[in-house]
Amino acid sequence: MDRTTDEKLVELRRMFPDYDPAGLLDVLVSCDGSLKRTRTLLGSGEETQRSIKRFKPQQTLSRFIKAPHSAVRTTHSSKPITLYAKSEIEASLKYCTYHTNVLPEDLAEKLLHQTLNDAHYKASEFYLFGNKCTSNHQSRMFMPAKPSDVFYYNGREVTDYGVYSNEMMLAQVLIEDVVNNALSQRIGLPFQAKSGQWEAQAAFSNKYEKDSNLDWHSDRMTNIGPHPIIASLSLGFSRDFRVRKVYPSDSQIFSIKPQHNSLVIMHAGFQEEYKHCVPLLPKKYRIPTEDLHPTAGARRINITYRNYLIKDPIFCRLCGSPMDLRRMFKDPAKRGRYFYQCSKSYTEHNGFNEGNECKGFSYANFEKDPPLTDDEEHGSFWLADDDIEARALQSSKC
């Protein structure tokens, strides 16, 4: 005779006492009432890896969370896990906080209208191996006023930019309050700005049409420095914002959908530990009418307020081009070391044979001016406290 749902829940609560009972019921229902499949999903080992493919690809993590700040247990899947609630997002993404309704409604609408109708947005251009590439979304840099010195962004001098409107400046002031309140509740990382309150010196904005996207990347730290803090404001239509760890390469993908007038704060450590993207909408996907924004329709505006810590560019000793600040992550034996790499192959056709790049390289030492060293052991270094693999491997070499 089949066991009742209540009997199955009693068994599950005995086996998984740390899980919320309502969450256990959610999993049991998603497994069509199968106690065996539920045990497999919530368990571990090779059987879980084989079985997970049979379950629903889109999941919410609330079913796995006992309390908002408890550790989240997830099984690896190639499908994104969707995070809906603030507690889910912040429990799953260590260096991220999510905030809704950050601006007065009328201010958010005015800022959205201004940016949607700004005709100066344009596609970004860059070079890879001598080939010119163009993004399929549009971008624009904004500044409070004309900079007194030469301003660089991603290896290029910024000459085309917009000046803040009153609405953009007011939004920045309000967002700075949200960011500083969030920072007051977090433990700082060693290389993030120590100069009191977080302030933004510029804003970089992306405009997404229905058929636009942004590929996987981490924001370059060249000017925003190590352990940067970026406040990302979403306006208009809600699009997927996907995040995954930079290591290993098959890390679980998490997806959130920032709502109109919401803020994702990418805290210190986010750019070092995560990559993010805005994927294309599925082909032939028909957006439900109720999901369209009354002003923007299917268009989305993203404004990222940034604190620029490094004003003076570092120039390559081989070719004289500006260099990019990066951090090693692929090899756990070297993970955590910051370095400067020539950006010439990304910013212009360098005249070399196709496939060749400038080899300009130096380790970064943030205690020096300029912050360069040829000695790896004297370079600046940071590992996440939960990076067990790299910590164990590097400790064994000491």
Quick recap of the structure?
By secondary structure, this protein is α+β, with helices and mostly antiparallel strands.
Please give a structural write-up.
- With 398 residues, this protein is of the alpha+beta class.
- The chain folds into three domains: 5-92, no CATH class; 98-306, Jelly Rolls (Sandwich), CATH 2.60.120; 323-396, no CATH class.
- Helices cover 22% and strands 23% of the residues.
- The protein has helices at residues 5-15, 21-30, 35-42, 46-51, 86-92, 105-116, 166-183, 270-273, 344-347, 388-396, and strands spanning 81-82, 96-99, 122-128, 131-143, 152-153, 156-157, 162-163, 202-208, 214-217, 230-236, 241-245, 254-256, 262-266, 274-278, 300-306, 323-327, 338-342, 361-364, 372-373.
- A hairpin with a 7-residue loop joins strand 18 (361-364) and strand 19 (372-373).
- The longest helix is centred in the middle third of the chain and has 18 residues, at 166-183.
CATH class call of the largest domain: Mainly Beta
| Average predicted confidence as pLDDT | 83
Shape: globular
Annotated CATH topology of the largest domain: Jelly Rolls
Counted beta strands: 19
Biggest sheet statistics? 8 strands, mixed
Number of domains: 3
Tell me the name of the CATH homologous superfamily of the largest domain.
Alpha-ketoglutarate-dependent dioxygenase AlkB-like
Number of helices: 10
Instruction: Note poorly predicted spans.
Output: 44-75, 349-355
**What is the subunit organization of this protein?**
single chain
- Series of secondary-structure elements, N-terminal to C-terminal: HHHHEHEHEEEEEHEEEEEEHEEEEHEEH
How helix-rich are the residues, as a percent range?
10-25%
- What would CATH call the architecture of the largest domain? Sandwich
Name the beta content range: 15-25%
Structural class by SSE content: alpha+beta
Specify Rg, calculated over alpha carbons: 23 Å
- First CA to last CA: what distance? 61 Å
